[in-house]
Amino acid sequence: MTALYYDTDADLTRLAGRRIAIIGYGSQGHAHALNLRDSGLDVRVGLHAGSRSRASAERAGLRVLDTADAAREADVIMLLTADTAQPAIYRESIAPHLSAGKTLMFAHGFNIRFGEITPDAAVDVSMVAPKAPGHRVREVFAQGGGVPALVAVHQDRSGHALADALAYAKALGCTRAGVLETTFSEETETDLFGEQAVLCGGTAALVKAGFETLVHAGYQPEVAYFECLHELKLIVDLMYQGGLNYMRHSVSDTAEYGDYVAGGAIITDDTRRAMRQLLGAIRDGSFAREWIEENRQGRPNFSARRQCESEHEIERVGRSIRRMMPFLEPKEVLPGARGARE
Questions:
Q1: Which stretch of DSSP H or E encloses residue 55?
Q2: Within 13 Å, how many C-alpha atoms sit on residue 45's CB side?
Q3: Rounded-to-integer distance, Cα 296 and Cα 246, Å
Q4: Is position 216 annotated as part of the catalytic site?
Q5: Could you tell me if 91 and 67 are in contact, meaning their C-beta atoms sit under 8 angstroms apart?
Q6: Most buried residue among 70, 87, 271, 332 by CB atoms closer than 10 A?
């Protein structure tokens, strides 16, 4: 039976009087720090000396320390920097101050699952992973709601690691929506698979393939953009609200029939076989090893691919079309603006 936890299952007073350090102030870091502070907890932010996020955190009224100092004085340490940056931060600034009785927390299980971080057995190790980008975690909390989250315990030295993690989830606002219990392995493997096969890799490749098919057949790129990218939000929003059945209920009968007859032609046995291969590479650690090595070498392939993708025709066409629709509050990624998330 799946374990789901809500506000009545979590006791925020478990964290009263405990000093909490949020390491990193990027997408998730800022949301965690601000939500926990607004829930009445004792929060400080740990950043390296040259961090560009330091001024932003201080403007928000948060106490900012160097990472090692934050870890030294904290009872609970939540590590929210980029996956590939975490092992070095842990070794240099956290592990020396991770004394018995403390709690180390994560919002993604990558480094525990693949052995890049191995905490001392004398501490609790847990995870609270909101299922939304950080800005939504903050926005929904400020509106009086919360986003769902996953919770997991890797080490329960104290005997109450789960209760403490649920208190943290409550401070984030997540128990307002519901928190699902999982394991570090399950969260990591399903998260990576979802990103690669569906949410990022699969969707981006499908959108580009549809766009290219129409453009190569002689249709206007602008029309292809509308049909293959712009309108995707409509469909996803319907799925988000009521699942696949609600989406099919909401579109025309012609569109619904097209769904039934064409979906199997796009997602073939070969596609499913490729998905199983992706999952296999995640589970056996080969994807993690490849990504870790790519970072050790300075990200040459990653950076080249990022540059190539940013120059695709769908991006050029999209920028022009989005400027015609200011109500979208269009966003544009500027050159040099995309570093590792802190």
A1: helix 54-59
A2: 32
A3: 45
A4: no
A5: no
A6: 70
Strand pairing class (103-106; 76-79):
parallel
Say how far apart CA 112 and CA 121 lie, in whole Å. 13
Cα–Cα distance measured from residue 228 to residue 206, given in angstroms and rounded to the nearest whole number: 9
Q: Is the dihedral of CA 197, 198, 201, 206 positive or negative?
A: positive
pLDDT(342) > 60: no
pLDDT in tens, 223-240: 999 999 999 999 999 999
Please say whether the dihedral angle defined by the alpha carbons of residues 181, 185, 188 and 189, taken in this order, is positive or negative: negative
Please check whether residue 37 is in contact with residue 18, taking contact to mean a CB–CB distance below 8 angstroms. no
Q: Give yes or no for a contact between 314 and 207, defined as CB atoms under 8 angstroms apart.
A: yes
On the question of pLDDT at 202 being above 50, the answer is: yes
Distance CA 68, CA 49 (A): 10
**pLDDT at residue 248 above 70?**
yes
- Choice among 30, 48, 108, 154 that is catalytic: 108
Is 50 exceeded by the pLDDT of residue 340?
A: no
| 93 has a pLDDT exceeding 90 | yes
- Summarize pLDDT for 289-329 with one digit per residue, the tens: 999 999 999 999 999 999 999 999 999 999 999 999 988 88
Secondary structure letter of residue 159 according to DSSP:
S
342: which residues sit within 8 A by CB, 6+ positions away?
24, 25, 26, 29, 47, 51, 52, 53, 81, 82, 85
